[in-house]
Amino acid sequence: MARVGPYVVTHTLGQGTFGKVKLAEHTESGIEYAIKILDKSDIKANELTVNVRREIAIMKALNHKNIVNLREVLSSRTKLYIVMDLVRGGELFEMIENRGELDEVLARKYFQQLIDGIDYCHRRGVCHRDLKPENLLVDENGVMKITDFGVSSMKGGSDLLFTACGTPYYCAPEIINGAEEGYSGVKIDAWSCGIILYLLLTGMLPFQHDDMTRLYELINACSVTYPSWMSADAKDLISKLLVKNPDRRYSLEQVKEHSWFRVDYETGDSLG
Ligand code: ADP
Ligand code: MG
């Protein structure tokens, strides 16, 4: 048990690529939070002073039901503590690992929430850049909360992010090819949303190979095999997202207009 400012930090909730996330209780109110602990030595000095501060300011200003709320950031000589709302339901990753693919109705519900949250952030100039089911949490009411948001610059830019993610199953071709310069992060997020949609519907990754060189080839070729039972509409949407050229890849605006997307998950009615 350790003290961090007004919090008592206890057990580990999750281990990410960089940070450890621990349970923290605010001693005065008794409210529980999740606290992400980052080692300052993992963050480039200039990133820390400029980018991280800006990113944190933006993060604090974000307020959306599908994004984990950032409460405050504390700093010690060696560490950075990011205090956020606690999401108790676990990772979407674990859900898919445990029960396999989701039915189309449930997959659509989570996908709509993902797009809602990301679209909100894009409109405010924030890109996630590390969307994957380990970073998508589900609360006790089945509401998806995107975490690890906007923290990508803390990870020291894309090269470090890339090394950290190790297996680039969710990385857009322009990142893998080191050509993301000049492209905006919004299309990088759109690519990852396509991968996540495929995973939600099939329980499998569209591009998978133990050999990294082969994996890169698969991603660059954008050759996706769809199970025969997948609806034509779902296939169509995924194929519009897993497009190599970011300029031709669907934007989130286009996703929101797609017929597969436009079904109300409460009523099953088409949103028209
Ligand atoms: P990293 O940047 O190192 O990947 P994350 O921010 O993704 O770190 O957090 C690592 C893990 O901690 C997540 O995959 C999740 O399991 C857990 N976690 C993160 N944020 C929360 C939260 N707000 N509530 C509960 N668990 C969380
Ligand atoms: Mg993470």
From TrEMBL:
Superkingdom of the source species: Eukaryota
Molecular function as annotated in GO: ATP binding; protein serine/threonine kinase activity
Keyword check for DNA repair: no
Reaction(s) catalysed (UniProt annotation): L-threonyl-[protein] + ATP = O-phospho-L-threonyl-[protein] + ADP + H(+); L-seryl-[protein] + ATP = O-phospho-L-seryl-[protein] + ADP + H(+)
All copies of domain Protein kinase, residue ranges: 7-261
Ligand binding (ATP): 36
Enzyme kind, highest EC tier: transferase
EC number(s) stated in the UniProt entry for this protein: 2.7.11.1
Listed GO biological process terms: signal transduction
UniProt keywords, alphabetically: ATP-binding, Kinase, Nucleotide-binding, Serine/threonine-protein kinase, Transferase
The keyword Nucleotide-binding appears for this protein: yes
Family named by the database record: Belongs to the protein kinase superfamily.
Name of the featured protein: non-specific serine/threonine protein kinase
Segment of the intact protein contained: 1 to 272 of 432
